Amino acid sequence: MSEESEGMDKEDRGDAGNYINTADAEAVARVVKNWLGNPISRSFLRLATGDTMEGPRLELLLRKYLGDNVNFHGIRDALGFRVVKFAIDKGADSFGVTKEQMGEALREPIFRRALVNILEGIAKFGVQRPQTTVAPFLVVWNFTHICNLRCKHCYENSDGTFLPDELTTEEAKKAIDMFEKAGVVAIAFSGGEPLLRKDFFEVARYAADKNFYVTVASNGTLITPEVARKIKEAGVQYIEISFDGFEKEHDRLRGVPGAWKKACEGIKNCVAAGLDTCAATTVTRYNLKIIPKMVEFVEKELGANRMIMFNFVPTRRGKEIANADISPDEREELLKFLYSKLTDKTCRLQTLSTAPQYARIAQEFGTGPAVATHFTNKAAAEALQGKAAALGDFIGGCGAGRLYCGMEPNGDIFPCVFIPIKIGNIREQNIKQIWEKSPELRIIREREKFEGCGTCKYVYSCGGCRARSYGYFGKLDGPDPGCINNRKYWEELQKEKTHKVQE
Predict the structure, then answer these.
(1) Which of 195-218 are b and which e, b meaning 16 or more Cβ less than 10 Å from the residue's Cβ?
(2) What is the spatial distance between Cα 306 and Cα 1, in angstroms, rounded to a whole number?
(3) Dihedral over Cα of 468, 471, 473, 478: its sign
(4) Beta-strand pair 138-142/404-407
């Protein structure tokens, strides 16, 4: 999630997950900061964390708490179990739920893995603003280079070519095994067009059977009713389908006539199959003015649950249409419009954005829900109503290199699918080692040092888009020129373009 899988709705998790979502957000933030932020408490937490031959120690101890037959392998496991039992019991009291309700939530494998990922991150890195997880919470997997469209803004430079070094089916499954052991929670299959790989359904089913939250990003042109049914049966829980305007605008950007009609049918077919369906739009000057009409069309005609607006990033093929990017002021008005729709109880559609400035907008609204750039859902938005200020610094805007990473078809790991910097390869290294030791990720996590964004009061809740910083300035710690607080950098870019034209 798509670049960013957007998380789970209540019906995906079952009722147990609701107990945690309805916890008071400010209480959660207070408990995390005061208890886990304490060095002594964190030292006890470390007893319950770390890797074992069977996977993350905390996962095993949680299963023991739930009554599963788990054998201890030393005094550390025994002491760690006491820490876990105390933490869960104390956490239940703090969140205003019973121990039985907490236990019921923990029986959900995806929720349990997510909790382990976060707590392991706190034990490893301490309580941070924003928080870094111990392993990628989400891996966005460009499953194949091959695609049947020729999108002008493609971050993968996809075409009709299947690259010879793409991971084989067996290698793909081994990657999923590695992610499971590391504690990755969600896998988002993207591309290229992932449905063009013949083993997609086999690999997706393998991930679902390993209790990953599985999502897919598609251009929608191949999704007949039968394909939509197969996607659902493969265990995919969420799908994003590209929707860049109406027929004229969409086909212009996608490079193939007729793509819009097939994408619309693909969305409808996914909705009919019972998939959590999102229309995904890359915002440019080609479609900015018609976005309100697009939102209405998606809600009333296509029937999708969500609509997400992606930041345009000038990378790879997208560099060729860099002039189509919108200005900071245009982005500001767009985000305010999207947030007004998100908080409008008469609008059934969730209106989201990958722009990290969306978190700032949420905080400025004050009474609305907190939003995460890469993870949000209707249940969470309702539970976090009015809590944007309390949780903004912990949720943290851009999640690149902090909550998620990208993986190329050949196993190369990138900080983000929009940042073409290789930081490792899973054929050669463990994903957790890459996540912990990459110097590039260390730069991304030190927000106070960002040019432009580092001195902003919203540095922790937003931090600017690292992909746009790299795309425009070649720096991971540079400014994001798409924000009104960085308007001077945008104006400098426009002057440089004018100067080049005059030359």
Answers:
(1) bbbebbbebbbbbbebebbbbbbb
(2) 12
(3) positive
(4) parallel
**CA torsion angle 89 90 91 97 (round to 10):** 70
What tens digit of pLDDT does each residue of 460-491 get? 989 999 999 999 999 999 999 999 999 999 99
Contact between residue 381 and residue 339 where contact means Cβ atoms under 8 Å apart: no
Three-state SS for 455?
Answer: coil
Peptide bond into 225 cis (omega under 30): no
Give me the residue label for tokens 């097939």: 262
pLDDT at 29: 53
- pTM beyond 0.85: the answer is yes
From the list 45, 114, 38, the residue with the least C-alpha distance to 79 is: 45
Share of the chain above pLDDT 90, in %: 63
Burial per residue of 343-355, b for 16 or more beta-carbon CB atoms within 10 angstroms, e otherwise: beeeeebbbbbbb
CB 201 within 8 A of CB 451: no
The string of pLDDT tens digits covering residues 244-263 is 999 999 999 999 999 999 99
Find out whether the peptide bond into 91 is cis, omega within 30 degrees of 0.
no
Question: Which residue type, as a one-letter code, is found at position 388?
Answer: A
Q: Which residue has the tokens 């009104």?
A: 484
Which SS3 state, helix, strand or coil, does residue 188 take?
A: strand
Q: Residue 416 and residue 428: Cα distance in Å, rounded?
A: 19
CB 142 within 8 A of CB 191: yes
Distance CA(256)–CA(264), nearest Å, equals 14
Which residues are paired to 277 by β-bridges? 239
- Contacts of residue 71, defined as CB under 8 A and 6 or more positions apart, other chains included, come to none
For 288, which DSSP code? G
Single out the residue of 91, 110, 119 nearest to residue 14, CA to CA.
110
- Report the candidate in 91, 120, 121, 96 with the shortest Cα–Cα distance to residue 106: 91
Spacing of C-alpha 486 from chain mean position: 24
Instruction: Determine which helix (DSSP H) or strand (DSSP E) holds 97, and give its type and residue range.
Output: none
